[in-house]
Amino acid sequence: MAAPGKEAALILIDVQKAFVEMEAAGHRRNNPQAVANMARLLDAFRNQGLAVFHIRHASTEPGSLLRPERSGFEAIGETRERPGEAVLVKHVNSAFIGTDLEQQLRDGRHETVILAGITTNHCVETTTRMAGNLGFDARLVDDACYTFDRVGRSGEVESAEAIHAMTLSNLDGEFATIETTETVLAALRHSAAA
């Protein structure tokens, strides 16, 4: 990865307690280290004074854990925003729809966007596709996002690992570059030393 300069921004997508509650209720996920990796990325961006955008999903579905009045709407502790960091609330899959995310990125001259969050094949994927389509240098961090097992159209359980891998395969090259936490952190270190 080329070292991101001051134009880089971290976008954390839907890192909310609803997904912790789903896991506690027995839903199986992949990438058990993902939230810790999100926190590492967040710390690195903060330490270098780089832009951070926190995205929250406010569901309009009656029974959703992500409704704003429910505990699931809250940020997962180690990725909670600090004063001065942007928090944008969305109601659909893409963080670019119904928010001013694109305008804030363009105003800040953030050409490179580092994306991480939950879930890989829903809001993370949709936001990543739009970032690429809008002309941003989108970098999706493989080990800093996750998803859950899902019953497919055939009625068979599709594993979180397979869904995650296929999502990244679909995005790689056309919409985004797939990174790891380590490649992003190494690029940030290189940029800071330059």
From TrEMBL:
InterPro entries: Isochorismatase-like_dom, Isochorismatase-like_hydrls, Isochorismatase-like_sf. SUPFAM superfamilies: Isochorismatase-like hydrolases (SSF52499). The keyword Hydrolase applies. Residues 8-170 form the Isochorismatase-like domain. One of its GO terms (molecular function) is hydrolase activity. Keywords: Hydrolase. Transmembrane segments: none annotated. This is Isochorismatase family protein. PANTHER family: ISOCHORISMATASE HYDROLASE, PEROXYUREIDOACRYLATE/UREIDOACRYLATE AMIDOHYDROLASE-RELATED. It holds the Pfam family Isochorismatase. The keyword Hydrolase applies.
